[in-house]
Amino acid sequence: QSALTQPRSVSGSPGQSVTISCSGTSNDVGGYNYVSWYQRHPGKAPQLLIYDISERPSWVPDRFSGSRSVNTASLTISGLQAEDEADYYCCSYAGSYTLMFGGGTNLTVL
Amino acid sequence: QLQLQESGPGLVKPSDTLSLTCSVSGVSISSNRYYWGWIRQSPGKGLEWIGIIYYTGTTYYNPSLESRVSISLDTSKNHFSLRLTSVTAADSAVYFCASEHTLVVGARNWFFDLWGRGTLVTVSS
Question: B110 at the A interface (CB within 8 A)?
Answer without folding.
Answer: yes
